[in-house]
Amino acid sequence: AKGGGIGSSFEFVPDPSSRFGIRQQRWLETMFGDGTIPLRPVTSRDAEGNRYFSWKQDDQEERVPDFAEARDNVEKAWRIVEARPLALKRATEIVAKLDEKGFADSLSKAELEEVQEIGPFTWLTQGAAGVNAAPVLSSPQGLAMPGNKMMQKVFSTAEGKSVAVFNEPQTICYVIRLLAFEPPESDLQDRFEGVLGDQRRLSMVAQTAFAEVFMDWIAGLEKDLELTWNRDPRLPR
Predict the structure, then answer these.
(1) Which of 7, 98, 164, 228 qualifies as a FRET site for 49, CA 20 to 30 Å off?
(2) Distance between CA atoms of 147 and 167, rounded to whole angstroms?
(3) Residue pLDDT, tens place only, 175-187
(4) 3-class DSSP state for residue 14?
(5) CA separation (Å) from 68 to 79, 80, 94?
(6) Among candidate residues 127, 132, 125, the one with its CA nearest the CA of residue 203
(7) Is the full-model pTM beyond 0.85?
């Protein structure tokens, strides 16, 4: 499977409240957000530099489908949820064998045919957005919808070791064996120290982490205060 695609694309939009005057808006937010006009073309880009041209064809009011209509989607979602522990268990077993015996003695012939070499890739990338834009999560070809948690596990794994990890929507459990880090960590440390005086660049890199901390704080407040928000349906346009 290939990462990226229009579903993970985004565009930069003006935002006076942002320290940079712009913010990254996901394509999904554009398509499903309030005020999006049907048949109005929009452009977006992904982390690999691909550009997309799309438009919403129709906008239907929210409603709760009956079970007969939703059954196929409900069954699919149920199967995915039930399969996650089984997938993680199998992936963890493969990891244990790989670290002990290597690929040839750990996998069947059919499993070996599924092995791909991916990369090199970075955790974050600026892609075609330019040096003045905040970096975004990389979408390496061969990894479908990786997320920050997945990247954190991959980049925390030692060279020559393996890890079992889900992608962002937890629809695929990967077994990843880390071949090498390039350049060495010492070189990366030197590069980091070289830009310590450039607070703007450091803030751009930390922007995603700031957002995650803020959302975790909000979630913690809602949990501690036992807040339940019953949102009224959208008013007809």
Answers:
(1) 164
(2) 6
(3) 999 999 888 888 8
(4) strand
(5) 17, 19, 39
(6) 132
(7) no
